[in-house]
Design goal:
about 55% helix; 2 domains; about 400 residues
């Protein structure tokens, strides 16, 4: 701008520095968007994809965590398991037959149960199946209170009782039933050289996954047909929540006083939490990819704004010649960039929430999208819009009206 025009412009602002009302700033800022809607939509889409990816990743992770928390709350984190390990020579050890009774005497223990695998016996659909085709399924002897201790549920049929435990009756784990192709009680299966009747099928047991691939029979029939000696292999124990850490170090010396180091004690809920922690590492990777997509969207906004400034030089020059200050021009293009980013942010937040809802519902998870994440996502897009639009706005404001009108 020449000094003469600059003096004329200053004279047109008799009350000091000229200011635009907020409504006028927004109206002027939308001019470029309304005149080039396709370009505006494509630029906003870049922001929307980035922010929707980030919100979807956080939302899916939060929904998965909410499902885990609900599961742990319903299943309980107060269950401990103990099993016979190996001695210093690597040989398998055994637990005494009275292990469950001894553990129940520990202060804080509410209930205990056990299973024992029959190592040399397997379950088959019928006698025509080759002995080597075990399908990875095991036969285990189960205490009658096992289902209550491990928070297991019967899918169909009934659990073992004092009567059925004495006869060739079997309850199948969820995976065992699927692999054998059995979906209703009453079917006959083969264990050893004996036919057993299926009386029940379990739902998957999250805290005792080994039961999912097991066939469970009573101790009386196991002793009579297979010579079961009564020694448990795995112990399941429930304590009061406040007693878990106190009870845990007492399990091994109580289960096997002669060799407590040969007893392995664990908390199944820790395994579920560890699985979620592993999922979180993958979530971090996806967040990084979402951030890159958001950055690319910001570059797209900056590119759109720079091109817009170059294409609208005459408009800028005309406005400056009519009295618009550099601040007016900066505000116009900065608001235009902010509106473009805000549009992408809102659409992206909606898309991310929708993707989260679809995936969570498909997996049976509660839909959990943290509100702070949505707010932070929109604020992030506004920040990116401000940064992306700052240089084009300054460049537009510095354009002399004489140069713009003659260009």
């Amino acid at each position: 701008m020449t000094p003469a025009i600059e003096r004329t412009t200053e004279q047109r602002a008799p009350h000091g520095k000229s200011r635009m009302r907020p409504g006028d700033v927004v109206r002027v800022g939308t001019t470029g968007l309304r005149s080039r809607p396709t370009r505006a939509i494509l630029s906003a889409l870049g922001i929307a994809i980035g922010i929707s990816a980030m919100i979807a990743v956080v939302g899916i992770s939060s929904s998965s965590q909410a499902k885990l928390n609900n599961d742990l709350q319903s299943l309980g984190t107060n269950m401990l398991t103990a099993q016979a390990g190996k001695d210093i020579f690597g040989k398998p050890t055994t637990l005494p037959a009275n292990t469950v009774a001894q553990i129940q005497r520990i202060n804080g223990v509410e209930s205990a149960s056990s299973t024992a695998a029959l190592a040399n016996h397997h379950i088959y659909r019928n006698s025509l199946i080759a002995p080597g085709q075990t399908g990875g399924l095991s036969v285990q002897v189960a205490d009658l209170n096992l289902l209550n201790v491990v928070s297991g549920k019967i899918r169909t049929g009934t659990w073992l009782n004092r009567a059925t435990a004495e006869y060739p009756a079997v309850v199948l784990g969820a995976d065992t039933a699927d692999r054998l192709g059995i979906h209703t009680p009453g079917s006959s299966v083969r264990i050893g050289n004996q036919n057993f009747t299926v009386v029940g099928i379990l739902d998957p047991v999250p805290l005792a996954p080994d039961l999912n691939t097991a066939a469970l029979i009573g101790s009386e029939i196991a002793a009579r047909l297979f010579g079961f000696d009564g020694n448990p292999v795995r112990i399941y124990e429930r304590s009061s929540d406040e007693s878990v850490e106190t009870v845990r170090p007492l399990i091994a010396p109580t289960a096997n006083p002669q060799a407590p180091r040969d007893v392995e004690v664990s908390r199944p809920s820790d395994a579920l939490a560890a699985k979620y922690a592993a999922d979180q590492a993958f979530t971090g990777l996806l967040l990084g990819l979402g951030s890159i997509a958001l950055l690319v969207g910001g570059i797209g906004v900056a590119n759109t704004m720079v091109i817009s400034v170059l294409e609208r030089r005459r408009e800028i020059g005309l406005r400056r010649a009519l009295g618009a200050t550099r601040g007016h021009i900066r505000s116009q293009f900065l608001v235009e960039a902010l509106l473009l980013s805000a549009m992408g942010g809102v659409v992206g937040a909606a898309l991310g929430t929708g993707v989260t809802a679809i995936i969570a519902t498909a997996n049976g998870w509660p839909v959990a999208v943290p509100w702070p994440v949505l707010g932070a996502g929109v604020l992030a897009t506004l920040a990116i819009g401000a940064i992306a639009g700052l240089y084009p706005a300054i460049r537009a404001a510095r354009t002399p009206p004489t140069t713009a009108l003659s260009g």
